[in-house]
Amino acid sequence: MKSNSYDIHVVLPRNYFAFTPLLPSVTCGTVEARSVVEPIRSITRKSGVNIHFSEAECYKIDNKNNKVYCRASKDKKLGGQEDFSIDYDYLVIAMGGRSNTFNTPGVQEHAHFLKEVDEALKIRHTVVDLFERASLPSLPVEEKKKLLSFVVVGGGPTGVEFAAELHDFVLEDMAKLYPSLKDYVKITLLEAGDHILNMFDKRITEFAEQKFARDGIDVRLGSMVVKVGENEITAKERSSGQIVSIPHGMVVWSTGIGARPEVVEFMKQLGQVNRRALVTDEWLRVEGSDNIYALGDCATINQRRVMEDIAVIFSKADKNNSGKLDLQEFKEVVGDIIDRYPQVDIYLKKNQMKDMASLLKKSQESNIIVDIEYFKEALSKVDSQMKNLPATAQVAAQQGVYLANCFNRMEECEKYPEGPLRFRGVGRHRFRPFRYKHLGQFAPLGGEQTAAQLPGDWISIGQSTQWLWYSVYTSKQVSWRTRFLVVGDWGRRFIFGRDSSKI
Amino acid sequence: MKSNSYDIHVVLPRNYFAFTPLLPSVTCGTVEARSVVEPIRSITRKSGVNIHFSEAECYKIDNKNNKVYCRASKDKKLGGQEDFSIDYDYLVIAMGGRSNTFNTPGVQEHAHFLKEVDEALKIRHTVVDLFERASLPSLPVEEKKKLLSFVVVGGGPTGVEFAAELHDFVLEDMAKLYPSLKDYVKITLLEAGDHILNMFDKRITEFAEQKFARDGIDVRLGSMVVKVGENEITAKERSSGQIVSIPHGMVVWSTGIGARPEVVEFMKQLGQVNRRALVTDEWLRVEGSDNIYALGDCATINQRRVMEDIAVIFSKADKNNSGKLDLQEFKEVVGDIIDRYPQVDIYLKKNQMKDMASLLKKSQESNIIVDIEYFKEALSKVDSQMKNLPATAQVAAQQGVYLANCFNRMEECEKYPEGPLRFRGVGRHRFRPFRYKHLGQFAPLGGEQTAAQLPGDWISIGQSTQWLWYSVYTSKQVSWRTRFLVVGDWGRRFIFGRDSSKI
Can you give the residue ranges of the EF-hand domain (chains A, B) (predicted)? Predict the structure, then answer.
């Protein structure tokens, strides 16, 4: 069964899909913006299925009447006809997040963000613009230095990658074209925590901090930004409590993501308050609805705790209602438990147990008979392994594939459910729950040096990792066209350098 | 002597040089904007000479005090320091022209132009935008048709090339991605004259008109636009006197060029009124000044007429003051006459005379002795061959090379002047006057068909001419980088088509 049994309508305020992991490269022209985007229509056309697409923003979801309200960007040429609504049987929300300003004053007005293609292009434009301004003959040296002070807020992967890109751009390209300005450039990275790249292994963090120190990038740890002004950014240093002001020509704000206003509105409608994103179950279905799904940065999976269900798990497993679980009974449900509660699996791996039976074994006994109290005790720690998934493209992409697969196999799985036992209910779940498979994460550090944390805590740092990065990012491109363009851009950069034309 | 004996300062409101002949290709993404631009600093750096560059607009020329006043684009970050002035010994004005609206109401507000890179990009953005809007589910068919009505005003090479590009884009790319809209697209070309491409040979004009008719491009000859509205353009048909209104989604205005306001201001200062551009002598020196030069679209050469100087020419030639010119005397000045008055040469070639002696020969006499009256009579028609040079990149480029050459050889030529005799004064001109060498002109007509008019009235039309166009435009690129990029873009388009992402 192919997806052409559905009538699909895609609504997006842009008419292209952007490969966002390459956006930091777009900011300095290492890769062109057009090389990381693919028109939605060209993607849907290749699917061979008739998919409607509208370039519009969804501003309201009416889940009572199964309707979404959309608006094409306002334009006088349409004379009020830019509003329309779409009825749905199923709704998939994948609206992403937006930059989180933590309500810091001045951020929205004076800082640049790095979530959308046009934001990346604006940064590129501004960088070159600042060099041109700093070249004006009328400007005193102090002013030149102010203009060429670049401040990056947030030491996560995006902020670090941008700082590294900017440093490379200045060193490799701008220093040749603006030789007199080279010494006035200053890059400052403000991180509120104790280290940059703190979601990475300590070895990577250390390497990155040392490399940035060698590169002359001023990394200020424990710096909480309290205000962004037009020409100045103010931070509070945690250690000393001191307030420090740094003049800037440009601030790039990259401190993680928050929920978009439309999503917040919808969360209110559903009674989901005080959550950072739309809460879904493990099948990506939005809690409080039965035909709305959410994935990517706008959603978060509310993984059911084992401890919440411990009584029903035990009673489902204890088929003969003896109040005791023996090995045979246990073996029959162990697969379902692991399917339904992935934290169990992670816990076992972490503690180097080969299967769940090891968890229940008392010393070296070969037979296992446990009661509910013992069962509870044995599983009491597994929930500690529950983690929110990171807000990365990797997670979103896997969720997209998972959900498409579910829809494509909906009829089949209605008849032959393939999911785990419903411990609280009867029968089985139609599908296996979504399971994220972490394939590793890169942190490009500039100068052809990249760090990577691969599954199993493998660490790889250096130029060979940069080449691994090149090949992974090439293979992840959405089309052969963009693959060809991205590789072409890298080649062009090696031969001719980056373009500094202010377009 | 290299140009490093000069202290050179370049002022330009953009920090890049754009290869404008490819702008029509940029409008539809056949070629990317970045592929046709090269940063000024990268060009000046390659020269090996230290050249200052400022990204600023020159808003005033003070020729009394040899000073130009410049302003970097206004920005709060500079706090008033965006103004500066530069003293000069020599000034070269090469500010180009601007689109001529003939003061037609609404053009400035509602039409697109095609002179700058950002204008070409705006057209590209608008074309895709119109297709996206026309796809909205809420829109009735009539509205879709209005949005997809593209009107091009001006049947010169730029207007024709844009119409052809747009037609190809719709046919080759958009028809695939927006199959339901294909039939609603309408391209209309309004030309006030009797034919499109009227500066070309009749065979080319005919071919182009026939091709456009086959392509379904509605060419309306003798249509004078009287008003451009937001959604409607109004034209007067010369033959019937009727006023016709055409609804439009986009109007592209391409009816030739006019003078920029700063140039007009400077012309007033010099007393050059009622002229379409800065008037220079044949050495590109601005009339009424002795250290200011002008070239390209902002300038026009005031070629001295033979008839104005006929008396002094005769007396300079008549060395022995006999009142008669014999062959020997004549031969001594003929080279100077042809150098100083290029129209003579053009006249001879046009009338298939092998040298100027033929002009003076009475029937088959071998010896020539003429008096002033006969001399006047014989040369009376040569001035008819004087023509203003076209406002093309070809002319501007040749003028640039010529002027650079003059400056580089200034000292040498002061000592050993190489120009023609000064007929009105004494001695010789330092340099030969600028002489334009027409290498031919292309008119791309879409569908891999190009027409070319080559020197000697050679005409070439078809696909082979398209390939000639590709090779000439490749060779004319300003750097190896852009050459590589432009060819890459053409290749990409053949393989993957044009990108319709709205960036």
Answer: 305-340
